[in-house]
Amino acid sequence: MTEDSDVRVGDIPDYPSDAAAMRAEKYEYDAELDLAYDYELEVIDKGIREQAETRARTYLSQNGDAVWARVKGATDDAEALLQVHPGASLVLFVSAAELVVRFLLLRPLLAGLIFDDSLAERLSVEASTGQAGRDRKLLPHVLRAWEIETTELSVPDAGPLWSTYEDCCEKRNSLVHKGSPVSDGAALVAIACLEVLIRDVLGSVVIRLGMKWPETDWLMPPDEPKDPFAPRS
């Protein structure tokens, strides 16, 4: 059979070319699937973050004003006592700091991380009830879960924030339980520690949640105010 009579000559499909086209089409399809999957994950992650922020924001909106009234009351009394009784002043400053830690930081941030309303309330209360020392140890970890890093914060002329705060609490406990003397300097450190806690830690939470405090009250309508100190029924 001659070349001219071979029906196969010139009739062979360009399989390599077709295979390349199919591979390119598959790669394009896979890339589109990957992009869609990444987008879905991004939407889910964004939705979770937004729900967490909404829950934490709602807690602060409802309870923030009642808590802040007590923080301010303790702080005002502490400042009035600073020159005449540094020990009492220290006790009040530390009490104000503990109110901030427990009720304006730990409870709302824990509530935001849990998506069942009744469970969130119960766990946030249980986690921040009892010894204040547990609050101090737990808070930096909870803040880190919210991508708020505090390890670099420091109190002027004192040291790192959390170790300084711990030292203030120990001085308060030593005064209350042992009658240990407190210097004017120790009370001043407690003031500075509280200022850093409010300005840098609570301030970061406020920014993260998109709230306007302290320019406005904590309460954001249509939320109804609550009092976390009221007896539970």
Describe, in plain words, how this protein is organized in 3D.
With 233 residues, the protein is an all-alpha fold. The chain is built from six helices and two strands, in the order ααααββαα. The protein has one domain. Strands 1-2 form a two-stranded antiparallel sheet.
Sequence-ordered SSE layout with sheet pairings:
Elements: H1 15-81, H2 86-113, H3 117-127, H4 132-145, E1 154-155, E2 159-160, H5 161-178, H6 184-209
Antiparallel strand pairs: 1-2
Helix pairs in contact: 1-2, 2-3, 2-4, 2-5, 2-6, 5-6
Radius of gyration: 30 Å
Q: Please tell me what the overall shape is.
A: elongated
DSSP E strands, number = 2
Number of domains: 1
The percentage helix is over 70%
Which ranges are low-confidence, i.e. pLDDT below 50, for 5 or more consecutive residues? 36-47
Structural class: mainly alpha
Main beta-sheet annotation: 2 strands, antiparallel
Report the β-strand fraction as a percent range.
under 5%
Tag the structure with descriptive keywords.
2% strand; 233 residues; 70% helix; 2 strands
Short description:
The chain is mainly α. The protein has helices at residues 15-81, 86-113, 117-127, 132-145, 161-178, 184-209; strands at residues 154-155, 159-160.
